[in-house]
Write a structure and sequence with these properties.
- The chain is 83% helix and 0% strand.
- It is mainly alpha-helical and 41 residues long.
- The protein is rod-shaped, with a radius of gyration of 19 Å.
């Protein structure tokens, strides 16, 4: 019986998920900054 570790595949997927989450958070922060700029002027 052959057992294959899925740890490396999971780590790669996790890294991709974290990278995508960073992009989403960055876009949300840009939107919030723009909203603050529009409402404070």
């Amino acid at each position: 019986m052959l057992k294959v570790s899925m740890g490396t595949i999971a780590a790669r997927k996790c890294r991709e998920i974290v990278k995508n989450a960073e992009y989403v958070i960055a876009i949300e922060l840009m939107c919030a900054a723009q909203a603050m700029d529009l409402f404070t002027t």
